[in-house]
Specification:
The complex is a heterodimer of chains A (about 240) and B (about 180). Helix content of chain A is about 15%, strand content about 25%. Chain A has 3 helices and 12 strands; from the N terminus they run H-E-E-E-H-H-E-E-E-E-E-E-E-E-E. Chain A has a 5-stranded antiparallel beta sheet. Chain B has 2 helices and 11 strands, in the order H-H-E-E-E-E-E-E-E-E-E-E-E. Classes of the chains: A alpha+beta (about 240), B alpha+beta (about 180).
Chain lengths: ~240, ~180
């Protein structure tokens, strides 16, 4: 009798705990309806009955002929007006000390690896401040010139989130992990910077890159399925 | 994590019953042991769930994109580079330059498998030019069990016959809800 009672109680508690967890899994803030727009007047498309899927083809990162060489300005495809970037120099470092940087100077990169490994910032920079063995730190000297661009958030505020590197086969996508001006223009968006029309700034950006990928590394802005307004730039000499 | 929690609870209950089964002789003793059981259970729950409360990564930085969008009748959506999504918040889209006042948007997630599925609530969301929008989606919820993230990409199409260049910022995760469009 006592065993039955204990077992029933245990079972009820476990079931209740598990069902509660299950509910959370599908009802987090994502599904909330608060703030639903009433502005949309377009008729919604009918629901498809058959599920569409696609598997992405391996990325083609072969360097095109018109790739922007180091020292040559290239136009940002993102702005309203003309904003030019120039990679002035590139350096590869094995330690943060060599680069004159500290752990706190870096931001979470959220790079996308073909083998689906997750590399958080703490995976690149070890406890003692050294860089993880399989990676190197690539620092690029960057000049940004605002000829006539207007920011879409604020008049003179722009973002660098579109400058990513690809390397390896299949290709890994490396996102920025260091920006000298990080957080100065916008605390929530660490890759934003301020630059008025006619102004120019010299700064540095950095990426943690697998050593094996260094030879095939290429910078690409605006990678998309139709290769529309893509800009390739060199990051190694 | 939930599987881990369930397993821990089952192991705990089983061990408790086995250990005290021989000792419980009457209802009074059973009451004492039940109090111990519940106290132990609460401690276990706190220990197991605490690591899960540590804030997860969230990919909320703006990803600028410039793409060509096709006509509504073409049926073809244009996608951009995938980025990793770490939580179940809405996908943020701010289409600030578009050839039409409204654009259709879908959020595609790869369920951590490399094959992408349209995970948009209601199949398609409609986003207005210049309005910061939050797209309800099931990309993260439908990830492979145990996976830390899914790869996500938004896809766009015109709502009319007009085609052209779309410029937008988007992010896989978000820290707040803007205009929720679906």
């Amino acid at each position: 009798m006592k065993n039955k009672l204990i077992l029933m109680l245990c079972g009820a508690m476990v079931l209740s705990a598990l069902s509660g967890c299950g509910k959370n899994n599908v009802s987090e803030q994502n599904i909330g309806e608060a703030g639903k727009s009433t502005e949309n007047s377009i008729v919604e498309q009918s629901e498809t009955t058959e599920e569409e899927t696609f598997t992405e083809a391996p990325l083609d990162i072969s360097k095109p002929d018109d790739i922007a060489k180091i020292g040559t300005p290239f136009l940002s495809p993102f702005e309203d007006g003309n904003m030019y970037y120039t990679i002035d120099d590139c350096k590869v470092y094995q330690t943060l000390e060599e680069a004159g940087l500290e752990k706190e100077d870096f931001i979470e990169p959220y790079s996308n690896y073909a083998d689906r490994q997750y590399w958080g910032l703490s995976s690149y920079i070890l406890e003692d401040g050294s860089i993880e063995d399989t990676h190197q730190l690539l620092i690029l000297d960057l000049t940004i010139k605002n000829e006539s661009a207007m920011g879409h958030n604020k008049k003179d505020e722009f973002g660098l989130g579109g400058l990513v590197l690809f390397g390896g086969d299949p290709a890994n996508m490396y996102c920025m992990s260091y920006f000298k001006e990080a957080g100065k223009a916008n605390q929530e968006q660490s890759l934003h910077f301020k630059l008025g029309q006619g102004e120019e700034m010299h700064t540095q950006i950095g990426y943690f890159v697998r050593k094996d990928d260094m030879d095939s590394l290429v910078g690409i802005i605006n990678k998309n399925e139709e290769r529309f307004m893509e800009v390739y730039f060199e990051v190694t000499e | 994590m939930y599987g881990y929690l369930g397993s821990s609870l089952l192991i705990y209950c089983h061990s408790f019953i086995q250990f005290y089964d021989s000792k419980v002789k009457d209802w009074k003793e059973m009451e004492i042991y039940m109090k111990k059981f519940i106290a132990g259970l609460l401690t276990l729950c706190i220990l197991v769930t605490t690591p899960g409360m540590v804030s997860h990564a969230a990919n909320t930085s703006d990803k600028p994109i410039t793409i060509h969008i096709n006509a509504a009748s073409s049926g073809k959506y244009t996608g951009t580079t995938a980025h990793n999504k770490f939580n179940s918040t809405k996908v943020y889209v701010y289409a600030w330059a578009t050839p039409v006042q409204y654009v259709f948007v879908q959020t595609w997630g790869d369920r951590s498998t490399g094959t992408y599925h349209n995970e948009t609530k209601g199949t398609t969301a409609t986003v207005r030019k210049g309005v910061r929008s939050s797209i309800t989606n099931y990309c993260f919820e439908r990830r492979t069990s145990g996976a830390q993230f899914v790869s996500v990409k938004p896809k766009f199409k015109s709502t009319s016959a007009v085609t052209g260049t779309l410029k937008a910022d988007w992010s896989p995760d978000s820290t707040r809800n803007y205009t929720v469009v679906n």
